[in-house]
Write a structure and sequence with these properties.
Number of strands: 8
Strand content: 5-15%
Radius of gyration: 19 Å
Distance between the termini: 39 Å
CATH class: Alpha Beta
CATH superfamily: Aldolase class I
Largest sheet: 8 strands, parallel, barrel
Structural class: alpha/beta
CATH architecture: Alpha-Beta Barrel
Oligomer: single chain
Shape: globular
CATH topology: TIM Barrel
Number of domains: 1
Length: about 325
Amino acid sequence: MAYDPMVHPGPRLPAVGAEQTAVRIYEVAPRDGLQNEAQVVTTDDKVELIERLVRSGLTDIEVTSFVRAAWIPQLADAAEVLARLPRREGVRFWALVPNVRGLERAVESEVRCVATVMSASETHNKKNLNRTRRESLAGLREVIATAKAEDMRVRAYLSTVFGCPYEGEVPVAESVGLCVDLLEAGADELALGDTTGMGNPAQVFAIIEALRGAGVPLDRIGLHMHDTKGTALANVLAGWQAGVRTFDGSVAGVGGCPYAPGASGNAASDDLVHLFTAMGVQTGVDIDALAGAGVFLADRLGRSLPGRYHRFHLGAAPASPAAEGGPSRARHTA
């Protein structure tokens, strides 16, 4: 079924009132941003990046993944990164745990917030996790139950909700059913992934509406959008209009999924902060400090990054290297 904006037009843009004045930006660059990079960032630089993100005002940061180093060598230093991060009041550091062994390592590292992952699409789930959806769900029930017994907060990612690079359209009913299953297993919140940027605003409205119809509270839904085709901000705005208040971002738009063709370009967190700030919606994030973190990361990766605000920030910056150690404007403008 195609998503017709005349059938699913969504609500009109609401006026910004007291109840509209805050969104939560969930930062994924240290994990989802770096896992797909050819250049392995040093542990020192990862810690510095995370500290800069904290100084910008971000309070939810996914810092690493406890996955087998042979699969994601870029994140082989997970335990060391976590050991070196200073604990800050009001700041939550998250780690992705793909299975029970990953959760055990997270517990050993004294992580209090973990994320799980599976796909709405059977083919992507097999390629990403080497399991069927049924096998993944059974395994995640054990992971989530164990995490909750340890008094941890659990976020459940569901990838390819808005389309699969192998199967195409994913039936909404299947995604909704898996979301309900994950919440019933004990997950505190969901993150709906547009893994290869196939989503559109009408589809976002339709899926959020379907989830609400299934009894899923809006405050337990987050959106993880990709800008592969330039639609991330439009889809985020649609999600906000539909009542979602948690949005994932990766500073300067770095990253993507290594097991999904075309999954480049996470939604840039600085783009999200700029969008909501311009609308009068509070994010709690200092856009200049956040953009500075993006400049730092681009310098460490040795390449330009795709975020729109990131590129604007470089163009607006002085021609000399940034005060905090970033590259010159000439080095990173496209």
